[in-house]
Amino acid sequence: xxxxxxxxxxxVKIRNQGVCNVAKDKGKDEDRADPARISKQAARQAANRxxxxxxxxxxxxxxxxxxxxxxxxAKPEAKPEAKPEAKPKAAPSAPVQAVPFNILLVxxxxxxGMEAALFAxxxxxxxxxxxxxxxxxxxxxxxxxAGARTRIPAPIRLALLGFGxxxxxxxxxxxxxxxxxxxxxxxxSVLPPGEPFIFFxxxxxxxxxxxxxxxxxxxxxxxxxxxxxxxxxxxxxxxxGAIWKSLYDRFGLxxxxxxxxxxxxxxxxxxLYFNAGWFFGADPQEFGRRFLDWALAIRDDPGEALASQKLxxxxxxxxxxxxxxxxxxxxxxxxLAGLDGDVTCHYRDLPLLYARESDLAVETAETVLRxxxxxxxxEAWAPARQIVLEGIGRDRIRPMFDRRLPLNEGRTRxxxxxxxxxxx
Length: 424
Hints:
Layout: H1 10-26, H2 28-33, H3 35-66, E1 102-106, H4 109-126, E2 134-139, H5 154-162, E3 165-170, H6 183-186, E4 197-200, E5 204-206, E6 221-223, H7 240-250, E7 275-281, H8 284-300, H9 315-326, E8 344-346, H10 350-356, H11 359-369, H12 375-380, H13 382-389, H14 392-397, H15 409-418
Parallel strand pairs: 1-2, 1-4, 2-3
Antiparallel strand pairs: 4-7, 5-8, 6-7
Helix pairs in contact: 4-5, 4-11, 8-9
């Protein structure tokens, strides 16, 4: 009796399967009694396995070469008898993070602590390839925050730590309760010098692969999701140009190179202006030093051109363009558009999230808030419980607005407040 064929086409194997099984059953006792037959059969099986492994390696090498990843470096030694450790590696399916960078958030008391936890959960879910330190800066209840509740509650701290965040304290000496937005300026002091960083407002969600964006940290930049909020030129002047030029001249910066000359003179978009919801740079200490010094200088002595301008809400956004321009940066290129689009979402408040943001952003918030690590905290936090878990956001807020049209944030807030849905 001849042994069953070992390597036949797939269809032939199926047709002969029954015959082969019968032959094998009849020959069981004979095989047990014949050691030579067993040895020969084992050798033949080993040879077949080696041949199949060699063919698999060869096919893998051919596929890699076709993708253009390893063709130039393919070695002639990749023959059937090659050892397993010599197998060519499969090309990565997506770009990897080129330069590790740190992320900075501010966490404070319940609301900012929960928002930071939402950010951390969404980062781990949607950018698992990101490498760096996630640092949550917590203001100490001293200095400019003396007497205020600044500590992140223990359950939220534990959640942040569970998502790999580090919570580092800082002392606010200059802004604090009088200007809470100044936290982002003074919090830069907790970051290690000389390491690339990006700051995000805590009310931000990561909705895509943040680690795959083409950051150039030697060229700082910031969010372009802004409107004409500053300055507000008075009727008889000075205008946009004169106000901004006075600041560039004051700090010894070149004004002309900051202009977007595709925009007409005295149109607000001609002048370098950002939303401070995110910004990045190469060295947080140098960035933070200029940011603090210049924000304080503008606050303490605005100058004649800024005499009629409000600085009690947007001081950080007045100083930020000057810092970025001084460090060789400017407007972000199209490669970073996702930071104001489908990679991160600065939603500001949960009611605004449902009123104006994308389905992706809403689904991200709902998913992470139902994560077992956050769900108990969401139940205890009234805005999340009412808007997300109880469905007010989807059932009532979302149908109120047409997101195909531009939504004015101030007007949207008024509508929500009038409807009793401004929950935060």
